């Protein structure tokens, strides 16, 4: 147990050796805080279990101080708990050591006659190689999600997650998988280490659903923040309930908007790396929720808003949400309105560039003016040999600076195949009893919020209930989802239906607890579960019921975007049959007005209507007047005229959207070729035959046995060696599959990939432990006896996480082999995995080590020199790649600054400083000895 910490001492992390040498900053009770200057990170550990190793140099070691002083250690003294190294007439306290010093742990172990079995050395080298390949792979962080490989979802996730600080609005049409896209982005950023602390804010009704989906699909375990969390915090005098100890947090809208002051301060100062907000269209500038998200947006560098209905083209609230994401791009509302009006013309220009066949001089001149470059330069760019790539970059530049910007991603259903379609069945009904029409019109006004909702709803003698009863008897074996406005209506429907039918019915409304709602939703999903699920409006908020094909709209909302959300619960990716939308209404009531308006004017039941909200808002006054007096005679004629006018306006607005914003975004959408390559790479990773063997060896070392159960299905069980708890594993064992198709159909199995927390945790534990970093081998071969030193160095560069250095220079293994004459023999020896080597016996090791130990330091120095030489081209390539990427960001800000006065020199200079810091970090990369093997060559006899 470690207890003797003192400020200024030097320690290294056994789990994260790449952080470099740390220095103790503070000791606070049971915790110690260590800063790692090389990487710019600070870690706080529990003293009793800190995975730290004290850095101690020995007489004969050459060390350097932070002021350029260097010396060869002759003696060691202690002072205030710190080592003081003496030599060459000087003294150097350990708190003044240069942060770039490295510790040759493998060499220390070898000199102390310590070694590991050859299979462990082999496993270590294979894991180092794998980690390097994975870090450079375009699918790093994309393999582990339990999701189907759907092109547009991965295209958007790849684009967003490739940005250093993504701030985007995911606005795919309903049913296209925005939540999956957000999960893919989040999973990739957490898996690659670019994001550690995340706050997700969702509608209250979706908190549990998000929690379950993140855990089930992406192995991300969030803490739900609610009133219980506040009570735990206020009742904990030790402060252990602090959000600092909760890296992944999830809360509802009401909690964020109404959190007590202490919790609100914690949320605002939470140090979040990313904030995600679902159903962002429900935020309105000026309300508490928007204010809280705005405060978070000012403090975080990564922000994702999600909304299928982000607002109309010139809506101020839509602009304000975009401004949260990219205040540089969206700094002027008037300019935003002007750009919206010019979307069609800009789309024509962008399409001409994208097609590239004979762009006319007028277009070249327009591009020249927009980009601030000469017409000749534009023409040369479009005529380059790599014109396709140049045109694609030019399209993105135009869309970014003058179009929809980089902040919004919207995929339309027309761009995605595989939807079976939907049909509508309008069911006109007679009013029946006296006063029924008046009662239904009052109900509509209450549903619209014009009148308050009563505590109870009466559906006695309601014609819709009579029709519904008959409908359910006819379709008693088919899953049906019913949506209506209020929980009072849900309860009234249940009372009426239970009297008339004997089918299994579930309820779902905001008056129930989250657990009750989730249980009823799960019951509805079971093959032998509920036949009918009666939902209030919260059932249309993010809930997915694509296993059902019949939807009953018991009433109709006045908001067409809400109507599309309702239908989208069934009509979405994964639906395998035609969705049948049933709309019962009573003649000459508000229900008839809305049903005919949606169907005859907007065609909103049978297809997504992009102009529906804009047109309905424009005609809302006339619509509401008709719903108040929908009787026969003149009202019928007025409704017919209104429908004709609405149909004309909808067609005109739809064409404008399709020719403008949607066409502009479609031209800038993902490349099918690039996305195809990405998905094919994921498929190859799924089918990698080497994965099972390597993971089996890794888990076996951790005391976990893979027992085959079926084809690519295993039971992971601990044996007597299992001691260290690992994430994603239970001591009772878990069942897993390595087959994506099986994982998608069997929720009882975990999906075991390189991204799985168990595999990643086991690999970190093994590589951080030092296991396998020293080995001794016999090479039976002809020729004179000889000995060699095989060394695996890691090329590493320390930098703060926000610089995302691993994009350009991940830890890179460099294999070096030297002989006792310090000559390079890498090409003369078999590969480390070769069967030519045998584990050297203890007797041979005891005989060999004393004879060669005097040469080991020189061999290590020679190997390090060779590794440094081989590292130079790697560093230069990383420097070039980083320079190009960062310079593009600087140039973007400079270009935006020419058309947007909100971008000043301070921001541009900050981008330049980031570029310079990243390039400096790449330039200071060093090699660290990670593993070594002493090899003795001798005749087989």
Automatic annotation (TrEMBL):
Pfam families: Helicase_C, RapA_C, SNF2-rel_dom, Tudor_1_RapA, Tudor_RapA. GO terms for molecular function: ATP binding; DNA binding; hydrolase activity, acting on acid anhydrides. It comes from the Bacteria. SMART domains: DEXDc, HELICc. CDD domains: SF2_C_SNF. Keywords: Activator, DNA-binding, Hydrolase, Transcription, Transcription regulation. Gene3D superfamilies: 2.30.30.140, 2.30.30.930, 3.30.360.80, 6.10.140.1500, P-loop containing nucleotide triphosphate hydrolases, Tandem AAA-ATPase domain. Residues 464-609 form the Helicase C-terminal domain. InterPro entries: Helicase_ATP-bd, Helicase_C-like, Helicase_RapA, P-loop_NTPase, RapA_C, SNF2-like_sf, SNF2/RAD54-like_C, SNF2_N. One of its GO terms (biological process) is regulation of DNA-templated transcription. Residues 159-328 form the Helicase ATP-binding domain. NCBIfam families: PRK04914.1. This is RNA polymerase-associated protein RapA. It comes from Desulfosarcina alkanivorans.
